[in-house]
Design brief:
- The protein has 230 residues and is α/β, with parallel strands linked by helices.
- The chain has three helices and eight strands.
- It is elongated.
- The protein starts with a helix and ends in a 5-residue tail after the last strand.
Length: 230
């Protein structure tokens, strides 16, 4: 089970307790509602947004970030104009095509896989002790994005933000060793990298979301007191 899954499971365990306390004390119950939160910088509203050049030292990450950004903006029904070769240096002085331009760079991408020390567990069956060994792999994926929101008509930079997207996941790997003493190095498994692409997508999405949170409305869950029946 992933780290996020364990957190969710722990939270669910407390729900019956909360409900029981409310019923015993006669408290007015609270309900969990999805609430719209306005962005801190600006609301794009009906503005026309040009998606300009995305580059940097990690071009593959940059292009993926551009696609994720487009998907996010399409979800709120904005008018999008794709101009992949348009940078701030060649932005027309009087741009009538759009109101805002978003530019970006991916400056860093790193994957780290760490195998912890072998851990032993034992069980007893028919008066005999059986040993099993495992190791815990920690996979960390980090991306750095440098994103800008520019006024298309004045070239003024409205927002310039360095965004870090990061995900860390833990996986248990079995070691084919049944003895009581620790396994030799040759029996230790190689790190599993089959999920790295998925983690990379999540890390990029988190970096883009950090940028978008400044000008896109988001929904958050909030506990509110339920109004009593009249």
């Amino acid at each position: 089970m992933s780290h996020l899954g364990r957190k969710r499971l722990i939270w669910l365990k407390f729900v019956p307790v909360i409900l029981l306390i409310s019923s015993l004390t006669g408290c007015v119950p609270y309900v969990r509602r999805r609430v719209l939160v306005r962005p801190p910088l600006m609301d794009l509203g009906q503005k026309r947004v040009i998606i300009g050049k995305f580059g940097g030292s990690e071009l593959g990450i940059s292009l993926e970030a551009r696609q994720i950004l487009i998907q996010k903006l399409k979800a709120i029904a904005l008018t999008l104009i794709g101009r992949p070769n348009l940078g701030i240096e060649n932005l027309p002085i009087k741009n009538e095509e759009g109101d805002l331009v978003i530019l970006g760079e991916a400056t860093y991408y790193h994957v780290d896989t760490y195998l912890g020390p072998p851990e032993r567990s034992s069980s007893e069956l028919s008066n005999q002790i059986w040993y099993t060994w495992a190791t815990r792999q920690t996979t960390t994926v980090t991306v750095n994005l440098f994103l800008k929101l520019v006024d298309a008509k004045t070239r003024k930079i409205i927002l310039s933000k360095q965004c870090v997207g990061k995900i860390q996941n833990w996986t248990s790997l079995d070691i084919p060793w049944k003895e009581e003493t620790a396994p030799p190095q040759i029996f230790l498994p190689e790190p599993v990298t089959s999920d790295v692409f998925e983690y990379r997508q999540i890390a990029i999405e988190r970096g883009v979301s950090e940028f978008c949170s400044q000008f896109m409305p988001v929904y958050k869950w909030k506990w509110e007191r339920e109004a009593p029946d009249e």
